[in-house]
Amino acid sequence: MENEKDLQTLDDMLFEGKNKAYGAYDLRQKYSSHLSKAFVLGVSGVVFISLSSFFVVKSQTKEVVHEDKPYTVVDLLDWHEPRVDLPIEEEQTPPVKQEVFEQVVIPEFVEPVADTKDIIEADVPTKEEIETAVISTIKQEGKASINTFENSGPIVQEGLSIKVPEPPVMPKVEKEFLRSEIMPEFNGGLKKMYKWFGRNLQYPRNASLNGVEGRVIVTFIVEKDGGISDVKVLKGIGFGCDEEAARVIKKMPKWNAGIQNGKTVRVRYTIPLSFQMN
C-alpha cells in the first residue's frame, strides 16, 4: 500500500477523490505524448518545405557556361592615347604679281638763270627804323619811340583811338543750403503740392504701354524769390518718366523761400514722384 502511494504522480494527487473520467485527467495524462508528436511533425514539415524549395530552385536554374575568351591586360598608369597621323595639307602660296615699272628719264641738269624782268625795287627799312617805328592802320610817317615796350596807355592817333577792353566781371554765385532754419515750402503745404502734381503730372505713353511703375527722385533749388532752378533727376525709371518728372517740377509755381538768420537763402530740395497705373 505504501509503494502504491509513492508511485502516485502529481496528476493523481490533484485528481484524488475527483471524477477522473470527466476528461481533464485524461488530457493531462496524454499531454507529453501530444507535445512530442507535434514537435516531430513541425520539424518534419520545415525540413520537407526546405528540401522541396531547394530542389525546385535547382531544377529551374540553368547552368551558365562561361567561355574562355582571350583578354588583354592594360596598365592604366602606362597607357598613352594612340597617335593618329593626320594628313598635312601643303600651303598653296599665291603667285606673286610682278609689277612692271616704267623707266623714268631724268633730264639733264639745267643751270638756273636769273630773270630780271618786272622787278620792283623798294626801299627796305633798316633795323633801327623798325625798332623805333609805331604800329598804325594809317599809312603815314611814323613817330619814333624811345621804349617800344613802355605802356603809354591807349594808342591815340589822328582820327583813331583804340581802348583796351576791361576783363569781364564773373557773376557771383550765392551759396546753396541743404537745410535752413525755415525750410522752403510749397504755397499751401505738402497736401496741396501733391494735389497740384495729380492735376499736372501726365503718365508717359511709353511707360503705360510697357507697364512701368516706380518712383522718380528729383532734386532742385528753391531760389531766394521762391523760383525753381537746377532741376536734376537723382534716380529714374526710364520710359519717359524721368523727363515728365523734371518737366512738372520746372512748371511749379513759386514757393515760400527758405530763411537762414532772418534772410532768404537758396535751399536744395529733394522730393520723390510716384508713377502708378490705376
Per-chain topology:
Layout: H1 2-6, H2 10-14, H3 24-29, H4 31-60, H5 127-132, E1 155-157, E2 160-162, E3 176-177, H6 190-200, H7 205-209, E4 214-222, E5 228-235, H8 241-251, E6 258-260, E7 263-275
Parallel strand pairs: 3-7
Antiparallel strand pairs: 1-2, 4-5, 4-7, 6-7
Structure description:
The chain has 278 residues and is of the alpha+beta class. The protein has eight helices and seven strands; from the N terminus they run H-H-H-H-H-E-E-E-H-H-E-E-H-E-E. The protein has helices at 2-6, 10-14, 24-29, 31-60, 127-132, 190-200, 205-209, 241-251; strands spanning 155-157, 160-162, 176-177, 214-222, 228-235, 258-260, 263-275. Strands 3, 4, 5, 6 and 7 form a five-stranded mixed beta sheet that branches. The protein has a two-stranded antiparallel sheet with strand order 1-2. 7% of the residues are buried. The mean pLDDT is 78.
